[in-house]
Amino acid sequence: MSDETLTSYLGGRWVAGTGEGARVADAVTGEHLHVVSSKGLDLPGAVSYARDVGGPALSSMTFPERAALVKAAAAAVSERKQELYDLSARAGATRSDAKVDVDGGFGTAMVYAGLGRRGLPDGTVIVEDEPIQLGKEGLFFGQHVLTSRRGLAVQINAFNFPVWGMLEKLAPALLAGVPSLVKPATPTAYIARHAVQIILDAGVLPAGALQIVCGSIPGVFDLLGGQDSVSFTGSAETAATLRGDAAVTHRSARFNAEADSVNSSILGPDATPGTPEFDLFVSALVTEMTVKAGQKCTAIRRAFVPQRQLDDVTEAVAAKLSEVVVGAPGADAVTMGALVGLAQRDDVRDKVAQLATHATMAFGDPRTVEVVGADAERGAFMSPVLLRADGPDVGAVHEVEAFGPVSTLMPYASSEHVVELVARGEGSLVGSVVSFDDDFARDVALGIASHHGRVLVLDRDSAPESTGHGTPMPQLVHGGPGRAGGGQEEAGLRAVHDHLQRTAVQAGPGRLQGILKRE
Ligand code: NAP
User: How confident is the model at residue 244 (pLDDT cuts 50, 70, 90)?
Assistant: First the structure.
């Protein structure tokens, strides 16, 4: 890495922007790494290149051929994963954090390759249903087909998952025969860029299928219309700005948002100290607070506990958090790395201060932390912080997302009460119910479902195979209503269908068969 501008891959070549750009520093040492700028880059040319070169090449391939591309791209990333782990360490990620992003990324793409190979036809068109008779005499029928749109997929990602975030969007787009223009978040663009380089080095994708722009994308939305899509992951604020662009409001570019979310975990009244569910709840909470230093959109921000278990849970979580060793990724015994940068740490500290006006500090101090193998002030380190709000009806604890190793414990009185409290998050990506009681699990899982994209029920029986609260699965919906963005990603082949145009073809039965028989 050098003091240069990070290059972008546009129009079939690596190019560097000009101008001052944004300076990016190593999260652990504070050392300057490079500049990110897209100034002067030919972004309109990249849009045309995707549409004119990448789109036709991809959409003329059959689904199995595209699935083979996805598999080869995933395999290329897997083979060179160590390079991505090393770069991730500079963004503060421990080896296990990096695996969540990197292995999670190529693993997701592998799942998509398999879904595409097994679940899509050997052709370029999906026929969705049987012919539907529309007249009494059987002379006129209708049938739904899905075909590739002729535009491009603009994929805007958050800083916290530079590899997974990119690959979980790229794989369905490739399967759908749609070219991608990836725009990673500035703080970790170098990691996403390297993953793109690995895929391009493998030489498996047709020209124009994948481009990446490091830096901002001024003017790109002005070129988007009804054949294009924007898949956004990031804060609710940026989502709101982009959703209001004329590309979306006037020209109907498809827009999907995965935004921030104040996710919850709920302990059942049956799960008292000594039960497996009590331990599972404590352990999941500590994991979600500390993996990627809590910089996960799915992390547990609100932990609801029956009033009479609150002291025991506070004590058990604090005891486990006291075992966390904060420091440089790779340094001796370190279990939690740094936040992505000093600006992010400042933001989390501000958010903790907002939460602390309604809660007490049960563990940790956002301004002080003991650090192994690095300087606590030059690196973006922070202690895990557990807050406790004994009055759970206060707004801030349901509204403020501190995007770091921070969670708030609070009591509830009954199933109805906790369902109502969870709903005050205004829509989340994921909620967990940790209980061995059938009635409680049912009442709460179904009670909170309206406000979630995913609900995980955890108990002693499912725990050995549970994929965990914070892990989106490519086979299942990732997304959530309301504040969480109102969007949907993954969910198996639904993500591929989302890139395709559904058309009802109406004709006589023979003609219809003739049109669709080769598909
Ligand atoms: P962010 O500031 O909203 O940025 C997200 C992305 O949008 C970045 O790539 C950013 O680029 C880009 N962007 C900002 N303004 C733009 C504009 N006018 N036009 C086009 N792109 C624009 O969010 P972040 O700080 O990277 O990520 C943290 C947030 O993401 C958290 O709130 C977290 O909850 C959320 N998140 C959600 C999910 C999910 O799946 N729901 C996953 C991960 C994170 P620059 O960096 O270059 O400004």
Answer: very high
Tokens at 18, concatenated: 């000009």
**Residues 39-98: pLDDT tens digits?**
999 999 999 999 999 999 999 999 999 999 999 999 999 999 999 999 999 999 999 999
Give the mean model confidence (pLDDT) for residues 185-189: 98
Angle at CA of residue 307, ends 302 and 308, nearest 5°: 130
Q: Is 258 a catalytic residue?
A: yes
Residue 214 is a catalytic residue: no
CA of 184 to the centre of ligand 1 (A): 9
Q: Which of 168, 214, 258, 490 is catalytic?
A: 258
Tally of CA atoms within 13 A in the half-sphere of 62 that contains its CB:
11
- Nearest-atom index, ligand 1, CA of 237: 3
Look up residue 45 and give its two tokens: 């040319």
| Secondary structure (3-state) at 381 | coil
By C-alpha distance, which of 257, 248, 208 is closest to 225? 248
Place of tokens 């499912």: 462
pLDDT cut 70: percent of the chain above it: 99
DSSP label of 139: -
Nearest CA to ligand 1 atom 16: 238
Mean pLDDT of the region 478-494: 96
CA of 275 to the centre of ligand 1 (A): 40
Cβ 441 under 6 angstroms from ligand 1: no
For the CA atoms of the chain, what is the radius of gyration? 24
Number of helices (H) and strands (E), helices first, in the chain? 17, 22
CA of 238 to the centre of ligand 1 (A): 7
